[in-house]
Design goal:
alpha/beta, Dihydrofolate Reductase, subunit A, nine-stranded mixed β-sheet, binds NADP nicotinamide-adenine-dinucleotide phosphate
Length: about 210
């Protein structure tokens, strides 16, 4: 299973504001690239906080879906508190298979009533195992920093697609590409740069896990 993330990052390493405002870090070109990556995925995995920032179905652009990718893109959300209270009128959506992953305390019937299946898991590794059981071969992680950190810490993030946006967001505590508890110097995870493209003032970078 290929697990890859895609994130737009500011020059100061932030992926959002300190107040979690809803806005795009990257340009239209970045969003176009995001669509292309979604078209390659069987599932898009996000954390509950990222879901709340844009609680809408995540779909690949029409006509771009890669052969073999599932008809209905799995939208996988990791949450302890549940997402029903944040779902708008655009759920359920026929193009999307919504799966919610979290503890046994999640309200199963409330989620099912909104068209979401509930899976009881402990962590992001369990989510990947469940997605594999569902037949997923390519999982796109769209953040945020908490979820990405847990996957990097477990050595389960194969590829990082990163748009470097020429902007400064600032703010102590603003989310970054990987947050969590952080690494000590002897456990910092290294990646290698495998692609780099400039479009306008943005850099589109790909990093792969070191062997
Ligand atoms: N620039 C970009 O490309 C980009 C992309 C994505 C996100 N963002 C930004 O990133 C920020 C959000 O990132 P974040 O790091 O704060 O949060 P996050 O990674 O999106 O989500 C964290 C949440 O995941 C859930 N979670 C974590 N561990 C879990 C576990 N073991 N079991 C069940 N659920 C678990 C919890 O959800 P609950 O709280 O629901 O319980 C937790 O609050 C926002 O500002 C967003 O705009 C930016």
């Amino acid at each position: 299973m290929w697990v890859f993330s895609n994130t737009a990052v500011s020059l100061d390493g932030r992926i959002g504001t300190v107040n979690d405002d809803h806005f795009c870090v990257g340009t239209d070109q970045d969003r176009r690239r995001m669509g292309l990556l979604r078209a390659k995925a069987d599932a898009v995995l996000i954390g509950g906080q990222t879901f709340r920032m844009g609680p809408h179905p995540i779909v690949a652009p029409a006509g771009l879906q890669v052969m073999g990718a599932q008809d209905r893109l799995i939208n996988a959300v990791m949450t302890r508190n549940g997402i029903v209270d944040h779902m708008g009128d655009d759920w359920p959506d026929d193009r999307v298979d919504l799966r919610v992953f979290g503890p046994s305390s999640l309200d199963v019937s409330a989620h099912e009533a909104r068209g979401a299946s509930v899976h009881v898991v402990d962590d992001a590794i369990d989510v990947l195992a469940a997605l594999r059981e569902l037949g997923c071969e390519r999982v796109l992680v769209e953040g945020g920093g908490d979820l990405i950190f847990s996957l990097v810490a477990a050595g389960r993030l194969d590829t990082i697609f990163m748009t470097l946006a020429p902007r400064i967001i600032g703010g102590v505590g603003a989310p970054s590409l990987a947050d969590g508890i952080g690494f000590s110097p002897d456990s910092i995870q290294d990646f290698r740069l495998t692609d780099c493209e400039q479009l306008g003032d943005e850099l589109f970078l790909r990093y792969d896990q070191k062997e």
